[in-house]
Design goal:
Length: 110
């Protein structure tokens, strides 16, 4: 199956040449209020780094079986959200990351 990642507010696209095997995944991330947003610089790098680390670590721990991309991206987005709450660029707290992950709503459909 193909995976399409889109914002939660996106309208699902019309059927494509891929047919019904396209998995649509949307992530709804609660906005950070102005008081919580400290420094967004490096959030994208944080997301990418955590996503790749999650995929590689899961594959190594499970005998080469890759983790789901959806789950890896969820944790990447959560770490990026947590990093926006810190002064230091691209740093994140694991507790704040777990808290952010609990608040991200993931929906998917074929």
């Amino acid at each position: 199956a193909h995976v399409l990642l889109a914002p939660a507010h996106a309208v699902p696209p019309e059927p494509t040449e891929h047919g019904p095997n396209v998995l649509h995944v949307a992530y709804a991330i609660p906005p950070l209020g102005p008081e919580a947003l400290v420094n967004p610089i490096g959030a994208g790098y944080t997301c990418a780094g955590v996503l790749l680390t999650w995929l590689v670590s899961a594959a190594a721990l499970h005998g080469g079986a890759p983790s789901s991309v959806e789950k890896a991206l969820l944790w990447g987005l959560a770490a990026a959200t947590a990093s926006c709450r810190r002064v230091e660029t691209a740093e994140f707290d694991t507790h704040a990351t777990s808290e952010a992950a609990e608040n991200i709503r993931v929906t998917s459909h074929l």
